[in-house]
């Protein structure tokens, strides 16, 4: 009842995909800087719960692309906790970070784990238990 999938970048996409493929075994997933998984949820009911942590300034997983996937999850009634980060791990109010997002910074942000947010990730996962019929 407490099996979770966690990953960063492509690993985050895999965590979400695995949670969808094994929704009978995985209670939830957490992903940092993922793009939209290639697998699509086609089962009845909402997809597994997820926490998605991403940066407003990210060259490889652009904020707008991540949010497009999150909107699709909203349309499927999926429980999704989202954390859009700016500088210094503070939550950023929007994807628009004009004059702050240089190409070099955008690439570095993708590869920089949000150290200090582990408590949030573990809190979300720990509060999610697989409902067994």
What is the topological layout?
Layout: E1 4-8, H1 10-21, E2 28-32, E3 50-55, H2 63-75, E4 80-85, H3 103-111, H4 118-126
Parallel strand pairs: 1-2, 2-3, 3-4
Report on this model:
The structure is a single chain. This protein is 32% helix and 17% strand. The protein is built from four helices and four strands, in the order E-H-E-E-H-E-H-H. With 133 residues, the chain is of the alpha/beta class. The relative contact order is 0.19. Strands 1-2-3-4 form a four-stranded parallel sheet, sandwiched between helices. The mean pLDDT is 92. Strand 1 (4-8), helix 1 and strand 2 (28-32) form a beta-alpha-beta unit.
Tally of contiguous helical segments: 4
Sheet with the most strands, sense and barrel status? 4 strands, parallel
- Which sequence of strands runs across the widest sheet? 1-2-3-4
Average pLDDT, rounded to a whole number, is 92
Roughly what fraction of the amino acids lie in strands?
15-25%
In the predicted model, the low-confidence regions spanning at least 5 consecutive residues are none
Shape: globular
Kindly name the structural category.
alpha/beta
Number of strands: 4
Q: Portion of residues in helices?
A: 25-40%
What string, H for helix and E for strand, traces the elements in order? EHEEHEHH
Terminal Cα separation, in Å? 11 Å
The rounded Rg comes to 15 Å
